[in-house]
Amino acid sequence: MSVSKAFDLADDERMLQSARMSIWEELPVGLLAVLVAFELFAFAYGMYEFGLLLAIPILLLVLNAYLVAKSSILILSDKRLFVRSGWLKRLTVERHVQSLTEVTCSEDISGSVFSYGTLLIGVRDGHDILVRGVKGAMRVTEVLNASIARSSERSK
């Protein structure tokens, strides 16, 4: 399915930017490290059943992170912003570009390494949008801020 059909873009509306979410934001890295350490310990000492039992939560954590990352997307058109996230509990947010005030981006150390960040999108009504784990967050921030500036110039 094309993006324009999935997000009901109008015929005169064009997509400016799309961004997927990063799997690294969803993975609880500390918990995975502990589980993998126990897994290696169990196999090293011949406790194969315990090692196989630990493999189940590791696979479930990775599968959940993958599904959340694959089902989440941010789309910016020349008129609207769409944010869709989650795979069991779906959340879709749609805002007109004229209602946005500014976008700020923050990256932690793992975000800098794996190229993802958190966007805080300011909205005029005060209900700001927080989007975590956006791939290429700095580039998305630049495009969003440029679109907000163009929109405010047009409204003057």
Structure description:
With 156 residues, this protein is of the alpha+beta class. It folds into 2 domains: 3-21 and 74-155, PH-domain like (Roll), CATH 2.30.29.30; 29-66, no CATH class. It has 6 helices and 7 strands. The strands form 2 sheets. The protein has a 4-stranded antiparallel sheet. Strands 5-6-7 form a 3-stranded antiparallel sheet.
Key terms for this structure?
PH-domain like; four-stranded antiparallel beta sheet; three-stranded antiparallel beta sheet; 6 helices; elongated
Brief summary:
With 156 residues, this protein is of the alpha+beta class. The protein is 47% helix and 29% strand. The protein has a 4-stranded antiparallel sheet with strand order 1-2-3-4.
Write the layout of secondary structure elements.
Layout: H1 3-6, E1 15-20, H2 23-26, H3 29-44, H4 48-71, E2 73-77, E3 80-85, E4 91-96, E5 100-106, H5 109-114, E6 116-123, E7 129-135, H6 137-155
